[in-house]
Amino acid sequence: LSGQGATSSWNLFFGAILNLMEIYFPCKLQRCGKKWPKKCNTGSWYSPELHELKNHVMTLHTIANCTKSPVDKQAYITARNQYKSAIRDAKKSTNEHFIDTSGNKTKAAWQVVKSLTGSSSSQSVISPSLEEFTTFYGGMVEELRQKIPSAATSADVLLKKIPRPNVCFRWKSVTTDEVLRILIRLKPSKSKDIYFMSNDFIKSVADVIVFPLTECINRCLLEGTFPEQLKISKVIPIFKKGNREDT
Fold first, then answer.
1. Each residue of 92-133: pLDDT tens digit?
2. What kind and span of H or E run contains 223?
3. Of the candidates 105, 168, 175, 216, which lies 20 to 30 Å from 122 by C-alpha distance?
4. Which domain of life is it from (predicted)?
5. pTM above the 0.85 mark?
């Protein structure tokens, strides 16, 4: 970064980070499939007795396949049905014990029902398009602006009445210790920006980037320049309440 201006220094520094991320954290396409709800932990129902019974069923299955005898096949079917029945009884007994020993029996019962049926209370996510999002909030700002009454005095007149301060404001260079302290104190978050960087990622590489980052910050302060890359943000609308389809 030696001999570079604020803009060039930041472009080199930020570009190096993006290139390294592309090498070590390449983007991968994933298929969006249905997410099945997690099974509630009602306890372990698979007992040693069931394990022994399963081994017995597998042994009879092997014998029936080898001998091709109808008698052996029937013995296997009978043992298999007994094993399935024992599994149902074990699950039922475990679920009953989970509900009886729970502090909230109604909630525990619904947890068991949802676990067995695979039902989920999550609703489909409806993502508004960029045009819809911009139009909605742009129209809201214009509506609020029209409701604000006009001021009796113009802004130019008010500004002329404000006395000019005698104290001059000047930027002060920052140190690597100050920058590192700020990076470490970032709130832990895995939420990514448009460059796929998160607070957790920045904190994990803070000791590596602190020196060039400090140099870039000081040059920006000296030249009064703000990096173009940091002027872009990502807005994520989060649904709170009401009807998701109500626009």
1. 888 888 888 888 888 888 888 887 776 555 555 556 677 777
2. helix 206-223
3. 105
4. Eukaryota
5. no
CB atoms within 10 A of CB 7: 16
Please tell me the distance from the alpha carbon of residue 19 to that of residue 71, in angstroms, as a whole number.
Answer: 70
Q: CB-based burial of residue 112 (10 Å sphere; 0-12 exposed, 13-18 middle, 19+ buried)?
A: buried
CA atoms within 13 A on the CB side of 113: 7
Residue 235 and residue 136 in contact, taking contact as beta carbons nearer than 8 Å:
no
Q: What is the mean pLDDT of the chain?
A: 83
Residues 43/92, Cβ–Cβ less than 8 Å: no
State the Cα–Cα distance between residues 119 and 37, nearest whole angstrom. Answer: 7
Cα(63)–Cα(79) distance, integer angstroms: 13
Q: List, for residues 11-68, the tens digit of each pLDDT value.
A: 999 899 988 888 887 777 767 655 555 555 555 788 888 888 898 898 888 888 888 8
* CA–CA distances in Å: residue 156 to residues 13, 146, 159, 160: 42, 21, 5, 6
* Structure-token pair, residue 246: 């109500």
Beta-carbon contacts of 119 under 8 Å, excluding residues fewer than 6 positions away, are 37, 113
